[in-house]
Amino acid sequence: MNGSLHLWLIPLLPLAGFLLNGILGARLPKWLVTTVALLAPLTAFGVVLWEAALSFEFVERMAWSGPGPLPRAIEFPFVETFGTWISLGSLHIDFSFALDQLSLVMLLVVTGVGFLIHIYSVGYMHDDPGYARYFSYLNLFLFFMTTLVLAGNVLVMFVGWEGVGLASYLLIGFWFNKTSAASAGMKAFVVNRIGDFGFLIGIFYLLANFGTLTFSEIAAKLAVNPAWTGGILTTICLCLLVGATGKSAQLPLYVWLPDAMEGPTPVSALIHAATMVTAGVYMIARFHFLFDRSPFALSIVAIVGAATALFAATMGLAQNDIKRVLAYSTISQLGYMFLGCGVAAYSAAIFHLMTHAFFKALLFLAAGSVIHALGGEQDLRKMGGLRKKIPVTFWTMTVAVFAISGFPGFSGFFSKDAILAAAFQQGTFGKALWAVGVLTAGLTALYMFRLWYLAFIGDSRDVHAHPHESPWSMLGPLVLLAILSIGGGWVALGGRFYDFLAPVSGPRAETGAGSLEYILMGVAVGVGLLGWFIAHMNYKPGSARVGSEALATEPTGFTKLLANKYYVDEIYNAVLVRPLLLISRYILGWVVDGAILGGAAWLLGGTATFGGAILQRWQSGNLRSYAAWLAAGAAAVLLFVLLAGSPHAWVPSFFHVIQVHSASHTTVSQLSQAGH
Amino acid sequence: MQQDVPLTWYLLLSAALFCLGIVGFLLKRNIITVFMSIELMLNAVNLSFVTFAHQWHAVKGQIFVFFVMMVAAAEAAVGLAIIIAVFRVRNTLSVDRIDLMKL
To answer: At what angle do helices A346-373 and A496-505 cross, to 10 degrees?
Structure first.
């Protein structure tokens, strides 16, 4: 440990931005709001970069193994504790942040991509009346996301976890005047609540079985018990997995993410594509020492991931809203990451998380640029021919489409191949997962190129549209992300990325013989090209499917099933939501709340009102009636005293004293007589 | 010390005066008459105080009477001031019409 890294700066800088813009934003001039909003992620990114520089310097020097102490090097994991949070008996939970290779990679992605999206937002949200509110929410999100990533124990992570859910809710429902946006925000929040419930149960199990919530201590306790597998660990892992499926939009809790597209497009890029939704993957990688001990839980993770990847990809094939296509694509790619975790290739999953953050943020921002160019139009059927009109958007989008389709040289190629190769080596089960993954890769290319053809190629299908290229505040981030989408994959060449992550996520699985690796690569790329080819045949200009009648007709058969998203929302509505609402409305609402609680309250209030109405009559304001009551009362007391006989029986003290006094009067009178 | 008049008579007189005070207080509408009724009740009580003080040869009862008279004087001063103030505002002396503070 060499002094402090000031890890607290990373979350607190965005928090300061949130407070400043949230409280004063509406009164500040726009340029000041923009400055504050941009400075927050920029300075946080700067701090992260500084720490990354220190750590890389350390890695380099260790490789060089020179003599002498390393004055500025930092050793991972670097833990900073800011005080005790909970101290109950033997339970001791600190406010602690921990920086290691995993959180460093996540921080670079979160603050780096986050900063680019902040810049983009300046252009995208320029005319929105809620400009300051928007940026304060965005900074709030960064605060919670960095807290989540830096957390040194599960409870701090949970704070960040809930916080990003809150920020997500606020930003999905940013245009709360739109009913669909408000209810989408609510849906995201409620569905996430189900996942968070699982996470919370998992935390309680951890606490009960390990007595600590600090990551490093849990890992240490597991390390001294090498024989401890399965059993309660499987339970814990499955609970954590429920939390991860909620946050990362996996089966069966993925339903909130497509609806989350109601939020502003940069929000979709930052929260619902690049960073927040990957929190589940990050959490599983963070807990990999736990999942490694439970093969059953791991295989469940892999199955959930593979199933989600395929399922979401098929739904993406038939969507007509440009953002919804990308939303299903995000779910599908997150499925890949879960698949990677499930075959214990955590580094590969994190690698795909990183490259996906680049190209998916780029896809969303480019889609936002398209929407901006068309004045709010999101329907692919009304686009077309945008290639010439908005060339920068077109070319950056093309890079992203190539990257997500896994074409060689682009970042998605490296990361997707790493996951597929790792899956292939897991026996028959892994081969099945690999097959699903490859099929999904083909579907991915198909729906991405469908989008590409429909939006950019051919002639415009909307004669009223006058597309215009976006300002450079929006195009700049697009270009930078395009560069990252190409170059982001090359950091893994020669296994450098995996070696960097190895201390946290375990050593990289052997990728086997070189020839097998190349064959697998070839298959994946071939399938991707096949997807492009099918998209080309179906959606190239002049083909039957892009004719105006074909686009206008309602889909039938299997396409209809896909376009309606397998009716999952409808099924959930019928099976879960409607019964719950009925129970809430009639049993809880009418019987419990209305009849029992309301009745009791009404009874109490009614008694008081009724009593008051009667007693009120005494307050006549007539002085003589008051006096009459007073006299009547006095008379009653007098009567009582006279009729009740001996006062000793019922008045213990007061009259008794008088009696004693009168008895002693003899002495007083004797004294006064003596005076005479 | 001779007791020409029995104790009971004094007490009956006192009770009669007190009852007259109560009746006057309850039945009269003119606030000045009501006020005088209060003074009557106070003096009825004073009478019984003096009676008992004489009976028991205790000076306490007589001292009490002085206190009551003093308080009654103060009360008369304040009460008459209030009556004048009320009359100026409401232009009436009927207690039935001074009922602003009822609900």
So the answer is: 120
Query: What are residue A87's DSSP bridge partners?
Result: A92
Put simply, the answer to whether B58 touches A672 (Cβ < 8 Å) is yes
Kindly report the pTM of this predicted structure.
Answer: 0.76
Distance from CA of A648 to the nearest CA of B (A): 22
What total of structural domains would you count in chain B?
Answer: 1
Interface of A with B (CB under 8 A): 616, 619-624, 627-628, 631, 665, 668-669, 672-673
Helix segments in A173-255, DSSP class H: 179-210, 215-223, 232-247
Structural domain contains residue B72 = yes
How far is Cα A293 from Cα A223, in angstroms, rounded to an integer? 10
Contact (CB<8Å) A624/B102: no
**Is the distance from CB of A623 to CB of B102 less than 8 angstroms?**
no
Task: Give pLDDT tens digits for B78-102.
Answer: 999 999 998 998 888 888 887 776 6
Put simply, the chain B residues between 23 and 62 with a CB less than 8 A from any chain A CB are 25-27, 29, 34, 56-59
Domain assignment of residue B19, given as a range? 7-90
* Contact B99/A at CB under 8 A: yes
- Is B58's CB within 8 Å of A631's CB? no
Contacts of B103 in chain A (CB under 8 A): 616, 619, 621
Average pLDDT over residues A13-20: 92
Q: Classify the phi-psi angles of A666: left when phi > 0, otherwise alpha if psi is within -120 to 50, otherwise beta.
A: alpha
CB of A61 within 8 A of CB of A73? Answer: yes
Report chain A residues whose CB lies below 8 A from the CB of B102. Answer: 619-622
Tell whether B95 is within 8 A of chain A (Cβ). Answer: yes
Give the CATH number of the domain where residue B27 resides.
Answer: 1.10.287.3510
Tokens of A361: 């943020």
Furthest-apart CA pair in chain A: how many Å?
139
- Name the residue among A621, A631, A672 with its Cβ closest to that of B57: A672
pLDDT tens sequence across B9-55: 999 999 999 999 999 988 888 989 989 999 999 999 999 999 999 88
B25 CB neighbours in chain A (<8 A) are: 624, 627, 631
- Please check whether residue A267 is in contact with residue A171, taking contact to mean a CB–CB distance below 8 angstroms: yes
- Predicted ipTM of the assembly: 0.80
For A222-253, the pLDDT digits (tens) are: 989 888 887 899 999 999 999 999 999 998 89
Q: Assess if residue B34 is contained within a domain.
A: yes
Q: Which of B26, B31, B95 is best to mutate for the A interface (most A CBs within 10 A)?
A: B26
Instruction: Write A226-232 long-range contacts (CB < 8 A, 24+).
Output: A228/A293, A229/A293, A229/A294, A229/A295, A230/A293, A230/A294, A230/A295, A230/A296, A232/A205
State the Cα–Cα distance between residues A263 and A189, nearest whole angstrom: 14
**CA geometry: angle A399, A402, A406, nearest 5 deg:** 140
Write out chain A residues lying below 8 Å of B22, CB-based.
631
3-class secondary-structure state, position A80: strand
CB contact (8 A) between residue A669 and residue B57 = yes
Taking Cα atoms as reference points, which of A238, A16, A282 lies closest to residue A145?
A282
CA A68 to the chain's CA centroid: 45
B99 in a structural domain: no
Residues of A in contact with B99 (CB under 8 A): 620-623
In a domain, B103, yes or no: no
Contacts of B26 in chain A (CB under 8 A): 624, 627-628, 631
